[in-house]
Amino acid sequence: MLQQRCLSSRPTLFISACFLGIWAVGPAIGQPPAARPPDFNSPVVSPDHTITFKILAPKASSVRLNAGDIPFDKVKGGAMRRDKDGIWELTTDPVTPGAYRYTFQVDGVATLDPKNGATTESVGNAWSLSVVPGSELMDTREVPHGAVAVITYHSSRLGFDRRMHIYTPPGYEKVSAKYPVFYLLHGAGDTDDAWTTVGRAGFIFDNLIAAGKAKPMIVVMPAGHTRSFGPGSPLPAPDEFTRDFVGDVMPYVESHYRTKNDRADRAIAGLSMGGFQTLNAMATKPDAFAYVGVYSSGLFGIVPFGQARAATTPPAEFPWAVEHRAVLQSPDTKKGLKLFWFGIGKEDFLFATNTATVAMYKKYGFDVIYHESAGGHTWLNWRDYLIDFTPRLFR
Q1: What is the extent of the structural domain holding 58?
Q2: DSSP 247
């Protein structure tokens, strides 16, 4: 009857009011209102550094937590338990402060946390993100904050559009000063989003600068993959990234930002695949970078993949070294290099690759700083390496 009366009434205002009335009535007569889902939060980080994850999946038969860098024993195998309301739950043991990626495996299907809007990218998939506070240099603190811009540029070398993230220090937009530049590369399977999300890089730079431990700088985080990548895919050809990096990324940055462009004002570092790309960029443009960092990486192929940790003696020549011998032997390459820093975890599967690479560079007369830590090939190490490496720059 209400609908008939509305449609038969001519005044527009009355018709609008009637339809608003229909909307307010709710479900059609005879239909019971939908049951309100139970109210809960996820993730919940407790003061003791445990994390409680929850997801509503009343019809699921199995839900597991897939939690990236959280050690397997701390997630108790990953199996979640269901309560009477259909909420699946798991509480970890205490974990180290930092950022953690995770998804839920709901009957085998990878699912983001519907209660958590914080996400981070990998190639071909996304993760939910949980941050556990407790680190002076990784937490979001009341200090001046820089800005992170997401930049799309056209790669003339590769022939298509590309993306990168660029951090500018606090106050950049208010002054006319020029700044040194730090190029920071991600690992295989990740994107240029990784360092600023799970890597906490923006907050690390903010806190280091505020504490007077690091110089204000521009930080460029380019995309390391130049084509599609997935499990079992070969790594992108090193020259593809290097051509784009040297031919398009660096010129873009130096033409769009207020940068200091001398060798002493440029740094580059990368983790895993990004570490290999760092060494390729250094060999291709040896007069460009005074500060070089290699995190959990080295020259891929210098030793057989998976070689035992004990194999750390200087290797025999291999194709990469032969190709770049002139750069390796040049006194000018070493003369302008103020910092050559390598970091690796004792349990890292690239340990032998890293240490053999260090041995090779030492054989060619490079002054290498070698840092060995606990743990493996994880963000728990890479954030710490960034915190160790950054204060050494531009001094």
Answers
A1: 44-132
A2: I
